[in-house]
Design brief:
Elements: E1 2-7, H1 13-24, E2 28-30, H2 31-40, H3 44-55, H4 61-72, E3 81-84, H5 90-99, E4 104-110, H6 112-120, E5 122-125, E6 131-133, H7 134-137, E7 150-151, H8 158-172, H9 174-181, E8 185-190, H10 196-211
Parallel strand pairs: 1-3, 1-4, 2-3, 4-8
Antiparallel strand pairs: 5-6, 5-7
Helix pairs in contact: 1-10, 2-3, 4-5, 6-8
The structure holds adenosine-5'-diphosphate and zinc ion (ZN).
Length: 212
């Protein structure tokens, strides 16, 4: 099964992706993680992507599509995969349609008013990418999943988050309509009472019904 996770920055895509990957064994492909890895290793792609990411803008469709095309061609994706953070524009969605077929698009629908605090309080595991929020860490600085060190992403500051939200509204939100028209969209509402587990309960019920 080939899945796309859609949602604004801070919607909780990465958190759900980890849970889906753990439970269903699908490789988790996050274009944001791929870019950050490239930045860390100072590759050509990393150097190119860094200035965009630091400003909260998108890396070019051309570069991003090429990365995804190469990644899903790898053998671990034969039985399916999960895309997180891609596609982010209509151009990317159309390019994806040319190289693969998507079975489900999970849209995590969150109010913009909630995401600023979520993102600015976010801490991410250096090793496995798991996300946490400072309010629930009680000062703990290591990942409960793998023991890795928790850090704050450079683009998780109020100014950059605002431009990521603007970019999302303009360029990514139209994908909701795009995939609704294809009959692929599964909408999951996430509000102030939602937890990672309550959201995952809805997501896994849907996946189980499709896998039956
Ligand atoms: P978030 O969803 O929390 O904003 P990501 O980790 O998915 O963060 O992405 C971080 C940054 O990486 C984006 O702001 C953008 O600059 C770049 N990026 C990630 N995915 C894409 C994509 N599909 N197309 C263009 N740029 C991307
Ligand atoms: Zn970890």
């Amino acid at each position: 099964m080939n899945i796309i996770l859609l949602g604004a920055p801070g919607a909780g895509k990465g958190t759900q992706a980890t849970k889906i990957s753990d439970q269903y064994g699908l490789p988790h492909i996050s274009t944001g993680d791929i870019f950050r890895e490239n930045i860390k290793n100072q590759t050509e792609i990393g150097l190119l992507a860094k200035s965009y990411i630091d400003k909260g803008q998108l890396v070019s469709d051309e570069v991003t599509c090429k990365i995804v095309e190469n990644r899903i061609a790898r053998s671990d994706c034969e039985k399916g995969y999960m895309l997180d953070g891609f596609p982010r524009t209509i151009v990317q969605a159309e390019a994806l349609d040319k190289i693969t077929s998507i079975d489900l698009v999970i849209n995590i629908d969150v109010d913009f008013s909630l995401v600023m605090d979520r993102i600015c309080g976010r801490r991410v595991c250096k090793d496995c990418g798991e996300s946490y929020h400072v309010s629930t860490l009680n000062g703990v600085a290591t990942c409960s999943r793998c023991g890795g060190e928790l850090t704050q992403r450079k683009d998780d500051n109020p100014e950059t988050v605002q431009s990521r939200l603007d970019v999302y509204a303009k360029q990514t939100a139209p994908l909701i309509d795009y995939y609704t028209k294809k009959g692929l969209l599964f909408n999951v509402k996430s509000d102030e009472n939602s937890t990672p587990d309550s959201t995952f309960a809805k997501v896994s019920a849907k996946l189980d019904s499709l896998l039956k």
